[in-house]
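Question: does this match?
>
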Amino acid sequence: MGLFDFLKRRNKGQTFQKSDLNIKHPPYYVSEWGEARYFFEHQYLRDQFFSNTKLFTDVIKRRNALYDMSCLVARNENRPNPYRESDFEVDFLRWNSDINLISVGLPTPKYEPLCYRIHMFYSDNYTNLGFYTIESGKYDNGFFMRVEQ
């Protein structure tokens, strides 16, 4: 599934209450951009990683790949991209002889539960996959979450 097809599937039916705006990190759905970013982080990246790990790892290694993806989201939303290239970072680590990690740093989230970081693990044969997020929570509480396939 392409990025634009994915974005068309987004759920627009969520509502929020005025009290949601009084917390440090209100829910993502109080902002259309927050909603787009939530689905980008929690579904699109996850789906691409699990469905074709080799292709995904090749693409994400390209310079500014995540920023370019955020530009596609902004264009699809008919709004300027609120992020800069320097807001994203991607690090690649190798542990032992067969464990690889892609660590993605994202722009500081304004809404809960948008991500600070995403960690993706895979073995050399692109099996033993893991997708983990570090997310913002209400009142400055962050949390670590494993995302299933």
Q: What stands out?
A: The CA atoms of residues 62 and 90 lie 10 Å apart. The chain has one domain: 25-147. Residues 32-51 form the longest helix (20 residues). The helical segments are 3-8, 32-51, 53-60, 65-76.
